[in-house]
Design brief:
heterodimer; A: two-stranded antiparallel ribbon; B: about 400 residues; alpha/beta; Rossmann fold
């Protein structure tokens, strides 16, 4: 392998990794407020992208995406109010199962609304064949959009959770629902809010990756699997770590492809997931002692 | 270290796997056009064809991947089959037999196709099954149909559906070996001797890759590298970088997945500027639209349907193609694709065989198919024999290319 080739594999890894990362961030928000892993996260992406694609036929791109994010945010909120809230005292596990059911429901609904054809948004800048050269290798400008969007989302979330009263209230609910209630935090709305937030972020992610991956009604689950792996790899609830873990998994896959038959690529994520669950269930970037404390 | 958490996570992982596995499961589509009236039982029994029962309706099963990853094959096939059956019935049926079409959705999955085939054969006692859409599914039910003495007219491409031969199994799409031959012929004309092959890891991709590997030496072409990818792949830059590292003179991609659009985009994105050949799976203008300007110049073999307008007036297929194209496009308001044509041909062949046999007895109809000559379909002119259950030659393919977002005949 010469140098430009190594860079090219690296860029390929970043392309895929950035997509994983942006999916993983959505998992983290709901997890950090409720402890639930929302398996309908992949569907949020597709609903968002599909809505934007439909709206883009009559509206400019930025407006279509904005509206799609709003629509999906409302959908996320409704989903919580209608399906999760009534069974609020159920175990986390039951709620997770509910989200799996919801993901199937949404997927089938999308099949009827948008049929089975792959659709796509146009490239935000340039076209299908535009490239940006980096050290003799090339990357699509859309990947820079994906990376940039991930960065903005993560920075925004970090600020939100650290410095705004609402963000802090959400974290407090995650930590100890009872104590948070005693402090006068409306815990129900915090949970609803977390679903809305992650739905909105999912929709945005779906729009940004749509030009690269195309959008098809049943793409949510495969994306969710990779995003979930990455979320666990980074440590659930930690958005910054999710981005790093996403890029890490992407790079790992790219270099596995460079050295072995590409058919083995799909194995990488699963192996990583199993290794992490067995040896470091708190994730790569959480110190063991803190992880143990949190889990207790 | 928080056993509870580990437990929940583990269950979550299992749930996720189930989700992944179950995600392609889709609702059974109901659209059997004709009412599911109980047909007089005598229809398929050997003693049947007396004149009183001659007008008994013919039950035909159809298994298509209407939803799921291969839906771009199955959906046009379903629409075509329903349209054609309606036309046949309006014209009074086949020799007076009305056709009852029972359409089933396999979601592109072999397991589902198997249970649907059993249901159609054992419970519905159909005369013939049209489909399935994909090669993997077709191979999965090949044996079942043969055993159940039910005619199978597959709409999938892989050669091994009819080779080795099974007496009840036929297929309508052109052979993938012929597609590979046409690709290599064109590559040779362009002076290309070293290619990279990528294919999806499914029935169609594997069969195509095998044909390419087998035929390459005949045309003096070396396959420098052959790689596979998952059908759900969303980015191919990694595997294409590997091809680039081998300094290939052309890329041959063999799949029916949306990766056909991705590969064109990704090649441009990593600066791999060599000719791109794709299989006959590329014959759907939606892939061109999804790949945008990056698909310009892609070369692929395809039936004549997509360039029907440009065919000379004396072309034997012109009339059939234009009629199908106009009927389909005016009814469904979407572009016609070659895949729907495979279902058209399957029904056409069945109808011709029933007429020729003058019977609806499976064995007689089956034998009649083997004697059909010069049946003009959308995929080509079919000449069946006891040895050839496909009936097409490599002339059924035309090399096409993409120019300004449209399919045109590839000019040397």
């Amino acid at each position: 392998m010469n140098f430009p080739q190594i860079v090219q594999y690296g860029l390929s890894g970043i392309t895929v990794g950035s997509i994983y990362a942006i999916v993983a961030v959505g998992f983290n928000i709901i997890y950090s407020t409720t402890g639930i892993i929302n398996f309908a996260q992949g569907e949020f992406l597709i609903v968002g992208a599909m809505t934007a694609i439909s709206l883009h036929q009559i509206l400019p791109l930025w407006l279509a995406i904005t509206l799609a994010v709003i629509v999906t945010t409302i959908l996320g909120g409704l989903m919580e109010v209608v399906f999760i809230r009534p069974v609020r005292n159920a175990s986390v596990l039951r709620l997770i199962i509910i989200t799996i059911g919801l993901s199937i429901l949404i997927r089938e609904a999308m099949l009827h609304v948008w049929d089975e054809q792959p659709r796509y948004l146009p490239y935000f800048t340039g076209t299908e064949s535009s490239t940006v050269g980096v050290f003799g290798a090339y990357i699509s400008p859309q990947v820079l959009w994906v990376l940039g969007t991930s960065a903005v989302i993560v920075a925004g979330l970090t600020l939100f959770f650290r410095f705004t009263p609402t963000g802090r209230a959400m974290r407090a609910c995650a930590d100890d629902r009872m104590a948070a209630c005693l402090c006068g935090i409306n815990d129900r709305w915090m949970v609803t809010l977390s679903f809305m937030l992650s739905a909105g972020i999912g929709a945005l992610a779906g729009c940004v990756i749509s030009p690269v991956t195309l959008t098809q009604y049943d793409m949510g689950a495969p994306l969710a699997i990779k995003g979930f792996t990455v979320a666990i790899l980074g440590g659930l609830g930690n958005s910054m770590a999710a981005v790093v873990a996403g890029l890490l998994l992407g790079l790992l896959e790219a270099f596995v492809v460079s050295q072995f038959a590409s058919a083995y690529k799909e194995v990488v994520a699963i192996v990583v997931l199993l290794l992490i669950l067995v040896f470091r269930p708190t994730g790569l970037f959480v110190r063991r002692d803190i992880g143990a404390l949190r889990a207790a | 270290m928080g056993m509870r958490r580990v437990k929940i996570l583990s269950v979550a992982v299992v749930g996720l796997m189930l989700l992944g596995a179950g995600c392609k499961k889709s609702p059974e589509t109901p659209p059997a056009k004709a009412p599911e009236a109980k047909t007089p039982a005598a229809k398929t029994t050997p003693a049947a064809p007396k004149s009183a029962e001659a007008a008994a309706p013919i039950k035909v099963g159809a298994i298509f991947a209407i939803t799921g990853g291969a839906s771009f094959l199955g959906a046009p096939e379903q629409k075509t089959a329903e349209m054609l059956v309606e036309q046949i019935n309006q014209a009074g049926g086949i020799d007076g037999h009305k056709v009852i079409l029972l359409v089933k959705d396999s979601g592109g999955k072999s397991e589902t196709a198997v249970s649907l085939a059993k249901q159609l054969i054992d419970e519905e006692k159909v005369l013939a099954i049209i489909g399935p859409s994909t090669s993997g599914e077709s191979m999965a039910i090949k044996g079942i149909c043969q055993e159940g003495k039910t005619i199978l007219l597959s709409c999938a491409a892989a050669e091994n559906i009819v080779d080795p031969l099974a007496s009840y199994v036929f297929k309508t799409p052109q052979k993938d070996s012929d597609a590979a031959r046409r690709i290599f012929e064109t590559a040779k004309e362009k002076g290309i001797t070293k290619v990279g092959v990528i294919s999806s890891s499914d029935g169609f991709g594997n069969a195509g890759a095998a044909q390419l590997a087998k035929l390459a030496p005949e045309y003096g072409v070396t396959i420098a590298i052959a790689e596979t990818y998952a059908t759900t792949e969303t980015d191919l830059t990694g595997v294409l970088t590997k091809l680039k590292g081998q300094d290939v003179q052309a890329v041959i991609n063999w799949t029916v997945a949306p990766a056909q659009s991705l590969v064109a985009k990704n090649m441009k994105q990593i600066g791999l500027n060599v000719p791109l050949f794709q299989s006959h799976g590329f014959g759907n203008i939606k892939y061109v639209q999804a790949g945008g300007e990056a698909t310009n110049g892609t070369i692929f073999p395809c039936g004549h349907l997509l360039v029907a307008e440009t065919l000379p007036g004396n072309d034997p297929q012109k009339q059939v193609l234009m009629k199908y194209k106009q009927d389909y496009e005016s009814r469904y308001k979407e572009d016609v694709s070659t895949f729907g044509g495979h279902a058209y041909d399957a029904l056409l062949i069945l109808a011709e065989a029933v007429k020729k046999a003058g019977s609806v007895e499976p064995e007689k109809v089956r034998a009649a198919i083997e004697t059909l000559r010069g049946v003009v379909g959308t995929g080509g002119v079919f000449n069946f024999s006891a040895q050839d259950h496909n009936g097409l030659t490599k002339d059924a393919f035309e090399m096409l290319t993409v120019k300004d977002g449209k399919f045109v005949v590839y000019a040397k």
